[in-house]
Backbone:
C-alpha cells in the first residue's frame, strides 16, 4: 500500500513538473516570438522647428549676416581702391605705391576676418546642433520607453538617390538607413510636441 502511495505521489510530482516546463516553454516561446518595435525620426525636421532653439538660431543668423555685410564692405573698398589706382597717372609712382599698400592692407584684413568669421560660424553652428541633438535624443528615448519602442533610427527616406552617377548611387544606397517605413512608425511629430511642451513648461 505504501509503495502504491509513493508511486502515485511520484507520478503526480512528475506531472506537475511537466506542466510547469510546458508553461515555461510557452512563455519563452511567446517572448521570442514578440516582434521588435521600430520607430523613425526625421532629425532635420525636428531641429528646424523646435521652439527652444529658434532664438539661438536667429541670433546666429544675425551674427552671420553682420559678418557677411562687413566682409562685403571690405570687398567693395578693395574695388574702390583699385579704381582709384587706375586713375593715377603713370608717372605719379608715390601715389600709386600708397594706394597699392592701402589695398594690400585691406585685402589682408578681408582674408583674416573671412577666416576668423568662418571658423566662428562653424563652431557656433556645431555647438548649437550638438545641443539640439542631445535634446532630441532625450525626447526620443522618453517616447521609446513610454510607448515600447525597441529601436528608433534616423528617417532618411526623403534623401533622394542620384539619377546620373552610378558610383554616387552606390554610396547613397550604402548609407541609407530606411527604405520603407509605415507612417505609424514615424515619431517625428511626437518628438516635436514633447520637446516643445517641455520647453514651454520650463523643463
Residues:
Amino acid at each position: 500500500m505504501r509503495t502504491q502511495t509513493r508511486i502515485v505521489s511520484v507520478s503526480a510530482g512528475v506531472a506537475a513538473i511537466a506542466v510547469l516546463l510546458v508553461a515555461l516553454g510557452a512563455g519563452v516561446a511567446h517572448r521570442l516570438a514578440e516582434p521588435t518595435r521600430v520607430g523613425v525620426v526625421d532629425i532635420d525636421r525636428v531641429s528646424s522647428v523646435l521652439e527652444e532653439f529658434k532664438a539661438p538660431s536667429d541670433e546666429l543668423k544675425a551674427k552671420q549676416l553682420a559678418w557677411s555685410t562687413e566682409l562685403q564692405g571690405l570687398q567693395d573698398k578693395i574695388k574702390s581702391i583699385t579704381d582709384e589706382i587706375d586713375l593715377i597717372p603713370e608717372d605719379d609712382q608715390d601715389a600709386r605705391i600708397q594706394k597699392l599698400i592701402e589695398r594690400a592692407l585691406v585685402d589682408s584684413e578681408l582674408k583674416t576676418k573671412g577666416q576668423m568669421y568662418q571658423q566662428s560660424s562653424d563652431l557656433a553652428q556645431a555647438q548649437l546642433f550638438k545641443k539640439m541633438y542631445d535634446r532630441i535624443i532625450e525626447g526620443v528615448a522618453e517616447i521609446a520607453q513610454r510607448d515600447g519602442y525597441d529601436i528608433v533610427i534616423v528617417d532618411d527616406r526623403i534623401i533622394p538617390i542620384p539619377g546620373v552617377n552610378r558610383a554616387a548611387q552606390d554610396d547613397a544606397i550604402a548609407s541609407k538607413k530606411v527604405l520603407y517605413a509605415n507612417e505609424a512608425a514615424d515619431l517625428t511629430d511626437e518628438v516635436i510636441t514633447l520637446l516643445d511642451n517641455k520647453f514651454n513648461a520650463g523643463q
In short: Residues 1-34 form one domain. The first helix runs from residue 2 to 33. The chain has two domains: 1-34, 35-200. Strands lie at 38-41, 151-154.
